[in-house]
Design goal:
By secondary structure, this protein is α/β, with parallel strands linked by helices. The chain has eleven helices and eight strands.
Length: 238
Amino acid sequence: MIMKDLSIKIYADGAVVEEMLDALKSGVVTGFTTNPSLMKKAGITSYIAFAEEVLASITEYPVSFEVFADDLETMEKEAIKIAGLGENVYVKIPITNSLGETTIPLIRRLSEQGIKLNVTAIFTLDQVKETVAAVKDGVPTIVSVFAGRVADTGVDPEPLMKEALEICRYKQGVELLWASPREVYNVYQADRLGVDIITCTPAIINKLSLKDKDLNEYSLETVQMFLKDSQSLGFSIL
């Protein structure tokens, strides 16, 4: 099984309850994350109803739910309500609001209350340092660095993640998460570095079964797929 070769924890990223439960049954996934964009895409109409449905089935693994507000006062109220939904809940707090105002004071207050946090939308080492400095030692905290989006800018995310991991080790209970992976290979990159967690879409999770697949066989299967698709089109070149 693929997980025998990996030390990293794989969290499923999404907001479709059926897909989350399928991931739960796979034996590969040990946690779940969602966000407003994924909830919009999934057509969620009630935040609390969605969260309660998820938590009714997923009781033993961490689940991260994100605040929706943009001001720190309302974020705090939402965070407290979300945290109260279950012992396995992590509250996702973006590192800034939409105006670029830091949420570090809020992160500090919530962590002091013992609320498990998933600090999200982190892109820089300075943001990692500020987050780790703000949280209370021993309170479970996930530091989500968007390595995939960093890579989208043409920057190699590995040096960033390596340094971020060292910073996260300064306090007990802090885990580093490789967010927004773009391909299966990112799982192996993150695992090699010693990153604690990586979030994966269902598509990436499904491709983990390709580990050590014979490349000649894979090549032949690809050609066969091309032929099947070309025949289904009914086109003629000559």
